[in-house]
Design goal:
Length: 356
């Protein structure tokens, strides 16, 4: 009887041990499965959070950004020239002519007096400017964004909406200022070539560089840089932050929509937001760039603040938004095309196997 009891105890204890071991194995397997699921969800959330996270090398990324900018500017060159001509109208002595200006009248004047190809006047220097500008802009944005995410410890986690917006805004602003500073002389030459009407003072890119350096000195190539940085920084910051926010929200609500359509739509809306906020600064920048051009007398002699004051006094507050309509016509397709082309080229280049 005692033997049977001891056997029963041993058997019962062995059964409990087996059940405990089996439960431990099941629990360990379940915990491992749950950990794997959590890791996959974190990786998916991190990848979906990073809007323009590069999947390609540095050279391919610079190439994608440059081509996107050049293609967009070529498509919108006519509207870009109309915008510049409207912006500099306030520098004319005949102030009464300002009330007669309209987009279609100015476009007809260009076709009749200069020919249809004149819409692309200065487009070569525009491409020469946009290729490095957008390359540096997108590349610097990715680098600044990664740096800011590492500083706040956000690179491997989803983060919240406010911190994401801050990273995109600050990273975009720093990227825009970096790209603008690196390519500013080309931007100034482009503006002066595009602003020419019937009388041709600058015969081309290199002639413009040589003439400006000879007549205004080397620093003449950086005339209006302060106003440019003041406008480009907020403009690119708003553009990237609005684009990333809209794109993330769109993909969250409609994840199956085409990347091309999403990039084009969100880029267009971000262009409208950034242009509306920073157009007055851009107008002042254009006019400061044209100070003393073609041997003309200086109009604004008191710097950035004085230029703002002079425009408001002579043209009113509406003068700060002269040319905003063709600017909208330009940025709606222009910024959308930039982001769409950039995203498309990134997908195409990432599908090409590397030599290594």
């Amino acid at each position: 009887m005692n033997m049977e009891a001891r056997v029963g105890v041993v058997v019962e204890g062995g059964q409990r041990a087996l059940n405990s071991a089996h439960g431990a194995v099941v629990d360990a397997g379940a915990r491992k499965f749950l950990q794997q699921q959590q890791q996959q969800q974190q990786q998916h959330g991190c990848s979906s959070k990073q809007g323009l996270n590069p999947q390609i090398g540095t050279i391919q990324q610079l190439l994608a950004g440059g081509i996107a900018g050049a293609f967009s500017k070529t498509c919108t060159a006519p509207l870009a020239r109309l915008t510049i001509l409207f912006q500099v109208q306030g520098m004319q002595s005949d102030v009464s002519a300002l009330t007669k200006a309209s987009i279609w009248r100015e476009a007809s004047r260009i076709v009749n007096e200069e020919g249809f190809r004149a819409f692309w006047k200065g487009n070569l220097v525009t491409i020469a400017h946009r290729l490095p500008y957008t390359s540096v802009n997108f590349y610097a944005y990715e680098r600044y964004k990664s740096l800011l995410q590492s500083i706040i410890g956000q690179e491997n986690q989803r983060g919240n909406a406010s911190s994401d917006l801050c990273v995109h805004f600050v990273g975009g602003g720093l990227a825009g200022m970096t790209a603008a500073s690196a390519t500013y002389p080309l931007d100034l030459v482009r503006t002066r070539l595009a602003a020419q009407r019937n009388s041709i003072y600058y015969r081309g890119i290199w002639h413009a560089f040589h003439t400006i350096c000879r007549e205004e000195g080397f620093l003449g190539l950086y005339k209006g840089l302060g106003a440019t940085l003041l406008g480009v920084g907020p403009s690119i910051a708003i553009s990237f932050s609005v684009y990333e926010s809209l794109r993330s929200y769109w993909q969250l609500q409609r994840p199956n929509d085409s990347t091309i359509v999403v990039s084009l739509a969100c880029g267009s809306l971000s262009g409208i937001a950034s242009s509306t906020a920073t157009f007055p600064i851009d107008l002042v920048r254009r006019r400061m760039q044209l100070e003393g051009a073609a041997g003309r007398a200086r109009v604004y002699k008191t710097g950035l603040v004085g230029t703002f004051r002079h425009i408001i006094q002579s043209e009113g507050l509406r003068g700060l938004y002269r040319g905003i309509l063709p600017e909208y016509y330009k940025v709606v397709p222009g910024v959308g095309i930039v982001f769409m082309t950039y995203e498309t080229l990134k997908m195409l280049l990432s599908s090409i196997p590397s030599g290594s």
